[in-house]
Amino acid sequence: MTTTVSNTDLAPSHRHASDPTDMGVVDLAAAIRGRELSCREVMDAYLDRIEMVNPRFNAIVSRLDPDQMRKAADAADEAIASGQKTGALHGIPQAPKDLTPTLGIVTTQGSPIFRENLPATESIVAERARREGAIFVGKTNTPEFGLGSHTYNPVFGTTLNAWDTNLSSGGSSGGAAVALSQRLLPVADGSDMMGSLRNPAGWNNVVGFRPTQGLVPIATNADLFVQQLGCDGPMARTVADAAYLLSVQAGYDARAPLSLDMDPLQFRQNLSRDFTGARIGYLGDLDGYLPMEAGVLDTCRSALKNFEDMGCSVEAARLDFDMPALWRTWLTLRGFTVSGTLGKFYADETTRSLLKPEAIWEVENGLKLTGVDVFAASVNRSAFYQVMRTMFDSYDYLVLPTAQLFPFDAKLDWPKQIAGRQMDTYHRWMEVVIPATLAGMPVAAVPAGFGPKGTSQPIGIQIIGPQRSDLAVLQIAYAYEQASGFSRFRPS
């Protein structure tokens, strides 16, 4: 399915009003409210497309009974007809990521340990989507326990890239990204610890948004106070659609004591804004610290011209921090978190045999840590936050690539080298995403175009803003999207 073209050969898609799967969630929700489309028409269109396309890509798993989905859509239509109050996602097909617990739907986390797992509780993002009228049709595929940015697992197999089925879709929200790019869902939830909303977005030419830490509450973790690396967030084909889903996901919840009390409806406003004079700091490969596959930096630099067309100033920026020490901080905090989560499965020989090697490696690293090690890592993370914070004295936004290489062969477990430099861990090739994670800052992943081999090489850029500047980050991402036009491109 590989097609090799240059960026200039790409033509934008044209929306067919008769096909609901070509509509984003904002337009779809408006059409349902205005009775231009029935919920049943929308559901039929998506179920037909999933039936036709999903077997090729394996993006949606644990699919529910189509007849039940159609009955749910009919009930949604009856609610509209009877004048009942409807929510923002009324009648919209959704498939939560397979890491997020869902009532009544198996949540495997990509692990054979949970092959038959029916959670007793539901995640807040799933709960809020249901409350707003979403109809769940299944789950989106993920790597085992979300570890690694390549979506494959022993339960459901591999999710293939939306643009080239020989290649990885990224992860851990790979199923969500491919489902969006291939029009199997209008909008999707994802989660992100190490770029899981960003890397698959870049590799499938869609949008991912990692919010300020705490903006989208998480209450299903056993630890509600210490673990502050992962978060939930939206993915979509456009920035406006991502912002719309964020308006459903965001907002304080007492079950998540560190969640933020920010008005979620701010993300449903018109995102248009003038960015003349905005200052963009481009971090690139962090002064040569990060190895990059040939073509990645050139593609991203070319995308920066869109900011200049918007009236922004763009200049190379330098992050004045000990990056090798930051990587060690990352290994400590991640090992601490993963070993705390998966340690009980490692301790049991039966379940340990079902863990992939990378999960065992993470747990064993975590078990070697002392409390002093973890505290020192947290202190270094705090120092890094202060450096990132002061960067915004000079710049309004910081920009990085979403990945250090283009999508790799889907048969690989993970890339062992980039530009001749050996990768010493299964996730070292993803190091470009840890600055925003460790700083807890909002970051939008938006398409940057395609590399020298054309559509087999999608890549994106990360647009990072100060903490709690989520709306501003979405606004500049929207302006960039309008200038670049990349969101209009779709795979065959």
TrEMBL record:
One of its GO terms (molecular function) is amidase activity. Its EC number is 3.5.1.4. Keywords: Hydrolase. It is an enzyme of class 3 (hydrolase). It holds the Pfam family Amidase. Gene3D superfamilies: Amidase signature (AS) domain (3.90.1300.10). This is Amidase. It comes from Paracoccus aestuariivivens. The lineage of its organism: Bacteria, Pseudomonadati, Pseudomonadota, Alphaproteobacteria, Rhodobacterales.
